[in-house]
Specification:
With 266 residues, the chain is of the alpha+beta class. The chain contains ten helices and ten strands.
Length: 266
Amino acid sequence: MASRQDISAWRPSVPGVVEVLHARFTEHTYPMHVHDAWTLLIVDDGAVRYDLDRHERGTPDGTVSLLPPHVPHNGSPATAQGFRKRVLYLDTTQLDESLIGPAVDGPDFADPVLRRHIGRLHTALANRGDELEAESRLALVGRRLRAHLRPRSAVDSPACDRGVARNLRDLLDARLLEGVTLDEAAGLLHAHPAHLVRAFGAAFGIAPHQYVMSRRVDRARRLLLDGQPPSQVATAVGFYDQPHLTRHFKRVLGTTPGRYARSGPA
């Protein structure tokens, strides 16, 4: 089989994520090396084998692998077909160094829910303007990882906190156009980011980023029917640009802003 290598890497504007890497390898073998960040790895095709702390590990059957910082590891294809992977490098604001030991002892998690959250986080990180969604998904990923590494530790309560949920809704409404990061909201409301996301979902049945986008789409509908062009409407209601508006408009209403504006009676 011919050697193949495809790489896409970028640094997103989301606190806590140092780098995103998507790669396809058929023959490349990583030598022993270290990172100063946590390596959160999912493999979409094929499998990877690696050594961590002198123990051989692998990524079969949709596992999630978390390789801790400062601990040497390598990596190579486990099959002749190679592998396709997606990686997030997370700094210690997401997972502190006290979790390095537990991660060395058990770096691989068979957790379909965690894997699904990570996949959706990758999608959000690839879309400009979806930073609040990425922050929200990162908070849930971090919470679930900590639960794996410290299963008996106290993680934020799943109980519905309607007070903090209402306060977050008020803040999102007040900052609908300019937006607010999850870290900003956590500081203003004196609550952990993961708790904010969970409390909001429990109280209102929708994630904070979905709430913001649906409110913006609602405002966009009114301006489109008033005759304003989609390019102006996008920035007027808080979207990054017209493609950002179109993506979320289609998700909510099943059509593009332009078609919606022209859909009146003949």
